[in-house]
Amino acid sequence: MPDDLRSETGSRWDLLTQTGAGTPMGELLRRYWWPIAGASELADPGTKPVRLMGEDLVLYKDLGGTYGLLDRHCRHRRADLSYGYVEACGLRCNYHGWLYGSDGRCLAQPYEDIAHPEARLKDEVRIKAYPVEERGGLLWAYLGPEPRPLVPDWEFFTWKNGFRQIVLAEIPCNWFQCQENSIDPVHFEWTHSNWSVRLAGKAGPYTPQHVKVDFAEFEYGFQYKRVRTDTDENDRLWKIGRVCLWPNGLFTGNHVEFRVPVDDENTLSVMWHFSRVPKEQEPYVQNSIPTWQGPIADPATGRWITSHVMNQDFVTWVGQGRVADRSQEYLAPSDRGVVMLRRRFLQDLERLKKGKDPKGIVRDPAKNRAIELPVAERKNFIDGFSRADMMRDPFNRRNLQGYIFQTGQPPEVREAFLAAMGFTEAELEPVPAAFDPLAPAPRSV
Ligand code: FES
Ligand SMILES: [Fe+2]
To answer: Whose CA is nearest to atom 1 of ligand 1?
Structure first.
């Protein structure tokens, strides 16, 4: 193994894992927009407490439909603004009624405005406020300096005829080890395919093995590529592969997973999932994207849930420790992508010092239209399949039968999904044989 893969010093790990304001990586990460909620969580005006990169905040939508993201604590005497109430314009503290606008200005101090109008104390008061934008049914926050970049308009946000859902989970570990999983092809074989075989009580057979992996950098991230014993270099997963989306995501085609730092020891997993409806269901327009939160621990045993794809990932991330101790790692050639990711961040910290933008920042509105990404099965998401084809294909069919990615999907989301896809539960029985999502056939759902 090359020496440079194991000779990273301890301080580098602190650099890469700390997200607070004023830390080098905290400042770097503040140059990007972060998904913090599903817009459907605030379908009605109201508030949602948010903790992002160690900052306690409150997200709100006022009665006029404007979003805001403010300090969690009132500027007056620190009451919790997530218990405040939204007005036609702004968020009002439930303690003494001070009212704040989305730009952080204090718009009203009811007692002072009546008793001491001449003092105009409110003109001096500012509360911490950050911009919020909606894109793809997600609410995005920007905590960095102006001029702010654009919220990337990734192509999948513009795809038509899809049932979309947003799935959240709170993961008790540092975000960076979650993101390192976004450039780790070999884990799929062991964390998902083979472990699922074992969890099903069988000793085998195991899935085809990885025999070759490669990584390539592009403007908005890295591609990782794989060849297994059942494929060759003509396979889509070698030619195109999957995307480690910069700086915080994994994009596989049918979904993107964002790893959002809550603080240095907690991460919000935000998954945005696209299920192409059958051709017979076109045109399908989804008015609101449901957002739901899945559990990660089994209350009966206190152990992590292992039954679903992302839950299996969560087990590996939290298993590395609250903040993985990288000084104790023993990296292997399959970890080359992880090393590339770490190096890119370290190099971008240097770029930032020179006043330059880090990787993947989008500022040009002309460029920010359905930004194309490598998608191994793009045709499937754009063109879709017929109902009959979906039922014939084990992968598509399994995805119709239940949500495999994360446990805890609410029944109403399941019902909405089935209505969108045009299937009934009865049609989808019986449970089929096991499927292999990396098998060399085009897949979509
Ligand atoms: S603490 Fe918020 S108005 Fe007094
Ligand atoms: Fe995984």
So the answer is: 77
